[in-house]
Amino acid sequence: MTSNPDEAELAMLKLADMVVTELHHHSRPQSALIIAKRLKIRMSTLMRCLAYLGDAEIDGQRGLGWVLLHQDDDRLLLSLSGRGRSVCDDNAAQADESVR
């Protein structure tokens, strides 16, 4: 990423935050289709975001590894990895401290 992110990069960062926040509310894997519907985004948009949040390597860049993808028959399930949950917990703790 450049030091001056463009609108598309900012939109993807906002979407990534929304996906991670939604998954943080659930202890069990969630259907990717249901997550897309809840966030009112297309499945293709969610999949692009998951390339950034998952651990796949694309064009020599490894994803953050915050979201795990599980295939259950024909359903794609999403959950936070231990690393992703830890980041969310740390951010929530920092937010709580700043409110005090």
Overall description:
It is built from four helices and five strands. The chain is α+β, with helices and mostly antiparallel strands. It has a three-stranded antiparallel sheet with strand order 1-5-4. Helix 1 crosses helix 3. The N and C termini lie far apart (34 Å).
Estimated structural class: alpha+beta
- Termini separation comes to 34 Å
Which stretches are poorly predicted, pLDDT < 50 over at least 5 residues? none
Strand element count: 5
Trace the largest sheet across and list its strands: 1-5-4
Helix count from the secondary structure assignment: 4
The helix content, as a percent range, equals 55-70%
Order of helices and strands: HEHHEEEEH
- Report the sheet-strand fraction: 15-25%
- How many strands, what sense, and barrel or not for the largest sheet? 3 strands, antiparallel
- What is the arithmetic mean of pLDDT? 89
Radius of gyration: 14 Å
Overall geometry: globular
Which labels suit this protein?
alpha+beta; 3-stranded antiparallel sheet; two-stranded antiparallel ribbon; 100 residues; 5 strands; 18% strand; 4 helices
Outline of this structure?
This protein is an alpha+beta fold.
How does the SSE layout of this entry go?
Layout (H helix, E strand, L loop, with lengths): L6 H18 L5 E2 H8 L3 H11 L3 E2 L2 E2 L4 E6 L2 E6 L1 H18 L1
Antiparallel strand pairs: 1-5, 2-3, 4-5
Helix pairs in contact: 1-3
